[in-house]
């Protein structure tokens, strides 16, 4: 199955059709739908989170992503399906434009059952600070419809030496954590030196990192990234994996299996965020993941 067909039909589409043809649809579908995403401890953050998060930023930028481009109704259907299957972890960012979409989707759900993560890009220039972290968090919480955010990250850190220029912002993040507005703080890494720095940083609770067995859309080789993650994990950092399918470049059946086997069994990660675009893809990822970890 090529990438275009996978995205169009969803990974479970053809499998479901085959099941219908052989007359065992009800048994197989009910069995698969009853599999729920389990929960894991996110390092030393004190948070227990679903092993899989619903990513909302595939090909994201300029306040849009493939998920938001589905439209509100389809996005909501996907988000609620995630909730029904235990995937109650929503990964958002300002640049994706996804916070209002998640907010609309979860407004009738119990807040205590949800894990909400969002991110904002923080410039390096401390002499010209343009972002108020407290005002940003107020705006984000209003868009999502929540009093607090579980995980709040600095988005898209693309070089080493990132911590010192952002000292003032870091203080604001820690103040928000102290006030209970956020539960855990950290960064989204897009450079191996940024990852190595985060692995030993005292203030970082959570690291979001790109890892897959193919080395696609990553910061270094899988071996080097895993070495850095081993250090981070030993220091109690919560580690969230992204780009497990190389941003849609590795979605054949064998590639999906290899990727999930790798990050779940060989990667130093606690949980994964997946930018899924259909219920079929979501069901396939959940069923595979839970089979592998069990």
Task: Give a written overview of the molecule.
- The chain has helices at residues 3-9, 11-21, 25-33, 72-84, 99-106, 133-144, 167-178, 192-200, 222-234, 253-265, 279-293, and strands at residues 39-41, 48-50, 52-55, 89-91, 115-120, 149-157, 182-189, 206-210, 238-242, 271-274.
- The chain has one domain: NADP-dependent oxidoreductase domain (TIM Barrel, Alpha-Beta Barrel), CATH 3.20.20.100.
- Helix content is 41%, strand content 17%.
- It is globular.
- Strand 3 (52-55), helix 4 (72-84) and strand 4 form a beta-alpha-beta unit.
- The protein is of the alpha/beta class and 294 residues long.
- Helix 2 (11-21) runs antiparallel to helix 3.
- The strands form two sheets. An eight-stranded parallel β-barrel has the order 3-4-5-6-7-8-9-10, surrounded by five helices.
- The chain contains eleven helices and ten strands.
- It starts with a helix and ends with a helix.
Short description:
By secondary structure, the chain is of the alpha/beta class. It contains 11 helices and 10 strands. 41% of the residues lie in helices and 17% in strands.
How are the secondary structure elements laid out?
Blueprint: H1 3-9, H2 11-21, H3 25-33, E1 39-41, E2 48-50, E3 52-55, H4 72-84, E4 89-91, H5 99-106, E5 115-120, H6 133-144, E6 149-157, H7 167-178, E7 182-189, H8 192-200, E8 206-210, H9 222-234, E9 238-242, H10 253-265, E10 271-274, H11 279-293
Parallel strand pairs: 3-4, 3-10, 4-5, 5-6, 6-7, 7-8, 8-9, 9-10
Antiparallel strand pairs: 1-2
Helix pairs in contact: 2-3, 4-5, 8-9, 10-11
